[in-house]
């Protein structure tokens, strides 16, 4: 892989055990029975370890939503036409999409990135142009992208993460938690191909209806992926090879975001199936990324469970979401923020003069 | 039952089907695949039906946290001493408890109500004194309260809900969504007694460790409840009888909050095990309350599942919480708010010029 990616990965360290122990000790002194806030407690401790701060505060959440088109969409694997990708990017920029509503709800900014939409998009202050190409190639007839393009996509994602995290970039300070999101008609198909490859599962077990194909569409999607894997033979232990053979530009970009954020000790809340595919790529390239990831939710898409199991991530909630865009990640960020506020703001037994458990 | 309670129940109507159909139709025009926001869509439609508004907005959430003491605590059924009840009420009033942190996180007010704490509490603008008595009687040796006290507790809860909902009470307008919360050392014991009675299940199947009793404590708790049910013979089809024989003042108050809010078409987000016991009482007295309830989460406490199954409520999330106070309800309110914003604020396909699904 290129030296920029390699150097970024070298900077990723294990979680800070000292901060985690201090966070655990404080949780046990707060005015509640020990452990009674369940996963919120565990989440606050993970974020303490990620940030190296025993009382982390999350004040600048950013959802990075990456868009790209997919040559494989020409095989009739999606219920929607590819023209919806740029239309939805414009919808993001105008604030009318679900991710805009949920980002406003949680007080987050949405950073929209064109990683490879198949048309030109107008300039906009919230849109970053990292277009690698006008969509991937149709991976049912060859590789989705070159290896060099795959590395460029990952590098662009790292650079976007570093830009968002840098305190100098934004007047209000850099991002202290990042959510990942995607937009790309057809992108459940590369995601299923990626999870089948990396987790060694049959395609039919990890392929669902995406935005809503019918039975015939689902059968076609499964056959298309099976043929593509036969043809391309992606190497499951080489994340860049998998990305280049059967991936997508937004998937590579999001894998880069995860690597970049981990290198700066910023927690990453991953959304659903497409973000999960990006996480599989990131963790295959750099297993040290895994502790920095927080799985927001379990998607309706059937391959999502296999991904999360493979990465040993337990989602925070299951609301039958299957939209993408970072919608689940936004709700997950809100829980991370709640968890950190509990750790930071609650009174201790001593502060409040409350009697402790009788032994 | 007394005429105030009866008249309030008469005012509860079924959900507004017209508003629900309009909300469903709008969800299907928003720029996302139909159904792709899963339970958030269903939640917005329920709230449309509750409020009678096809695009409901939730701007004034209030968590009503009711506190009381329990004579049964003298039987050694809790890991904490009863003095913690008033200590925690003071912690609520000083803003240091988990419910304060989470209410601030979601922009809600916490209304604290003394339904029957076993000591006098200082006057405070956020504390309402509805003390029915200085704690219940020990229901292992007789009824927890008189039938008249049970009705007074329910009536007080209705009155608190009506006060919170009334636009004239608060400068910023009345509550448009209510979360329920509890504080009362020993109160998982009456809650287990209530769920065993109303759902006809063995006590051991619906009794857990509460705030953390050990094995011996759990065995004692189960035996205590079994003996109490033998002695008191609560009538499972008479919610007021169950409340008076084996309930608690905060449980009665919360049942009243649910009845009062339903009579004013305000959605109620119920918290965990104690709020669930109150909901069982409310739904036994007035089955028309059920559609107005939203179950926030599945508690660690084992009897909670039986309660929710009995009421046919599906919790929104499961974060292994077992604290009470309204902490789960606060997080649930945030999801309700997110769901309503999706319905109200998202662009339609027509607004945004996005192509619809190809047929």
| Residues in helix, % of chain A | 40-55%
Mean pLDDT metric of chain A = 96
> What best-fitting shape of chain A do the alpha-carbon axes yield?
globular
The most extensive interface, with participating residues per chain, is: A-B, 59 and 58 residues
Main beta sheet strand tally, sense and closure of chain A:
6 strands, parallel
| Structural class estimated from helices and strands of chain A | alpha/beta
C-alpha Rg of chain A (nearest Å): 20 Å
Number of strands of chain A: 6
Residue share in β-strands of chain A: 5-15%
Distance between termini of chain A? 57 Å
Strand order of the largest sheet of chain A: 3-2-1-4-5-6
Features:
359 residues; 6-stranded parallel β-sheet; 9% strand; homodimer
């Amino acid at each position: 892989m290129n030296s920029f990616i390699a150097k970024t990965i070298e900077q990723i360290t294990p979680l800070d055990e000292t901060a985690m122990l201090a966070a655990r000790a404080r949780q046990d002194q707060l005015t509640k029975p020990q452990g009674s806030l369940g996963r919120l407690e565990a989440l606050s401790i993970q974020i303490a370890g990620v940030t190296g701060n025993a009382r982390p505060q999350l004040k600048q959440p950013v959802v990075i939503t990456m868009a790209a088109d997919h040559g494989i969409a020409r095989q009739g694997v999606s219920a929607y036409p590819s023209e919806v990708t740029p239309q939805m990017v414009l919808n993001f920029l105008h604030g009318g999409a679900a991710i805009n509503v949920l980002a406003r709800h949680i007080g987050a900014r949405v950073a929209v990135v064109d990683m490879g939409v198949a048309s030109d998009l107008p300039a906009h202050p919230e849109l970053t142009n990292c277009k690698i190409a006008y969509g991937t190639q149709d991976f049912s007839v060859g590789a989705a992208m070159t290896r060099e393009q795959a590395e460029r996509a990952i590098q662009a994602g790292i650079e976007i993460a570093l830009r968002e995290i840098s305190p100098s970039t934004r007047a209000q300070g850099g991002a202290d938690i990042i959510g990942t999101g995607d937009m790309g008609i057809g992108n459940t198909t590369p995601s299923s191909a990626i999870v089948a490859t990396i987790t060694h599962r049959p395609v039919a077990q990890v392929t669902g209806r995406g935005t809503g194909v019918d039975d015939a569409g689902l059968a076609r999607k499964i056959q298309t992926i099976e043929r593509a894997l036969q043809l391309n033979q992606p190497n499951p232990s080489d994340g860049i090879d998998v990305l280049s053979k059967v991936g997508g530009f937004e998937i590579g970009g999001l894998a880069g975001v995860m690597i970049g954020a981990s290198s700066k000790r910023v927690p990453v809340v991953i959304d659903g199936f497409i973000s999960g595919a990006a996480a599989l790529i990131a963790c295959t390239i750099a297993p040290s990324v895994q502790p920095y990831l927080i799985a927001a939710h379990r998607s309706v898409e059937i391959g999502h469970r296999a991904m999360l199991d493979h990465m040993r991530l337990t989602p925070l909630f299951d609301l039958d979401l299957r939209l993408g865009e970072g919608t689940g990640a936004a709700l997950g960020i809100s829980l991370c923020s709640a968890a950190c506020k509990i750790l930071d703001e609650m009174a201790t037994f001593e502060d409040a003069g409350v009697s402790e458990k009788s032994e």
